[in-house]
Amino acid sequence: MIKVLKPGFYSTIQDFGRFDFQDFGVPYSGVMDKKAAALANALLGNNEDEAVLEMTMTGAILQFNNQTQIVISGADMSAKLNDDHIKLDKIVNVKPNDVLSFGKLNMGFRSYLAVLGGFKAETVMRSKSMYQNITKQFMLLKNDELAILESLPISETQYASIRFDNSYMNCNAIEVFKGPEFDSLTKKQQDDLFLKSFTISKDNNRMAYQLEEVLENNLKPIITSAVLPGTVQLTPSGKLIILMRDCQTTGGYPRVLQLKESALNILAQKFTGKTISFKLNSKY
């Protein structure tokens, strides 16, 4: 068991999400950065889609009541176990009463904590991903208790860590495909999409990232149609909205671009004020 002493800014249990329920209006949800979460699980020998703790901007403070092993991947939030700094992407042995805490955000925006065997959270529609009105709670709260497996005592300290290429978190190029309504844009609108840089606005969360800059827009709204994480919508005002993991399943704004899956991982590690540019996939 893990006790939540402080939950951090926005911390949730997530796996790879809910599938096959979009016909009922249920979002996919799941970890925002699959690359980081999968790595943390892989190092522990878990399935890559095992439930992890996703922490946004600031980390939680957690007290362990179990012997276990953990890995932290993704954003660098200056993790410490008791008074000792711990590295990212490294198996760390944890004993009963140990306290895991986080400090300054040095890189990225979302950090992932994996535990041996994964978090044993509520499963709804074949997923443990927290989402409002689907699971009993949609974010961690102070004094929550998180169930985990208890591992056997570890006799030797492990010093090995993996060298993981986390340069994608500093990448500004967002690779995309043409969306269903892309060809309805004028040549100038299409060019502007790939020549301009766009700034992430303060309106960004697990549902969507809005961009600051305005694109000239004369397109009419479309009949409500399917959308998914990574869909880039063009609003009547000319602003672009990039849908993220908790997005709705349908929308009425033109879908001008679609992010490549790996681009979602990049965007998940960006926050307000960061700039991005769209890069059309080379197959086009």
Automatic annotation (TrEMBL):
Tell me yes or no: is rRNA-binding among this UniProt entry's keywords. Answer: no
Xref: Gene3D superfamilies? Cyclophilin-like
Record keywords: ATP-binding, Hydrolase, Nucleotide-binding
User: Origin, by domain of life?
Assistant: Bacteria
Note the Pfam families from the entry: CT_A_B (PF02626)
InterPro entries in the record: CT_A_B (IPR003778), Cyclophilin-like_dom_sf (IPR029000), PxpC (IPR052708)
Q: Which GO terms describe its molecular function?
A: ATP binding; hydrolase activity
**In this protein, which residues make up the domain named Carboxyltransferase?**
23-284
The protein here is known as Biotin-dependent carboxylase uncharacterized domain-containing protein
User: Which organism encodes this protein?
Assistant: Flaviramulus basaltis
State the organism's lineage: Bacteria, Pseudomonadati, Bacteroidota, Flavobacteriia, Flavobacteriales
